[in-house]
Amino acid sequence: MKPQSTELHPLVQEYLHELHVLRQLSAHTLKAYRMDLTELQNFATADSVELLKVSNSHVRRWAGRWHAKGKSSRTIARGLSAWRGWYDWITEKGARRDALSGSVRTTLSANPVDDVKAPKRLKSLPKALSVEQALALVHQVLREAQEKRDLESIRDAAIVDLLYSSGLRLSELLGIDVMQSKDRQYESAGWLDWDAAEVTVLGKGGKRRSVPVGVPAMQALQTWRELRDSAEYAQQSPALFISATGARLSPRTVQARLRTLAMRAGLPTHVHPHMMRHSFASHVLQSSQDLRAVQEMLGHASIASTQIYTSLDFQHLAQAYDKAHPRAKAGKG
Known about the structure:
This protein is an alpha+beta fold. It is built from 12 helices and 6 strands.
């Protein structure tokens, strides 16, 4: 809703001036504060309530109006925060000011915004590829590797296959060395156990974990390793995935290559490395129904972080039901 063109309450103006001069907030932040406090004043005016006599029930009612008009939880939370900050300022300062008529003491006994919270945000589900889309991408990169036989294509095939096979974060993938190394000067963040077909990585919180690597992914990795080791510049870095100059591959390079490969595979969505991790988790859970195993492979400290993939699994089942069941949709006999 567009704020009404009304002059701001003197105490609101003073507060905004303090935010600008003393706290030196950015112009963008000040604009947001002004907009939210203007909305507060508009609500109070519409309900014939003085700003300094607003109660907790008024604030709850106005937050409800925001919600009914389709304001997002984030927007409502920001607005309530701005209102709470202003009333805190008045309470702490015990400000005295001409307010509407005459000189009045503007001290409040309590902040009317206290205990008022925005509606809970709907937790967005992670975006994952379908099994068919993930396989289409993997087959695309393998096909290009077989046709081109160049460093970039063979490396890309190994990267994509490993991302989907083991559900690694991008930082974990790029931290992998060809072999484990540990001395006074350097210690590998991650490495491949070529015999055991496992990859060990350093995850969030400095926690290491080992994840199995599928046979096809190991084959793609072995092909890449042979090509990598044959290059003279490969000795400059212990990194498994390197650029044409021998440097450890950068995150942006992987992101850009994956986006391009997904487009060539005909996928109707922007694919990024973390989507491959989501796809891995969702597809393993669909097949195994073993939440604890998926948690361990993803390196989640809490099972709650892994449980979100059960919602993706339910979506998959619901879509399969809609497609297959003769009475899934209205209008069918």
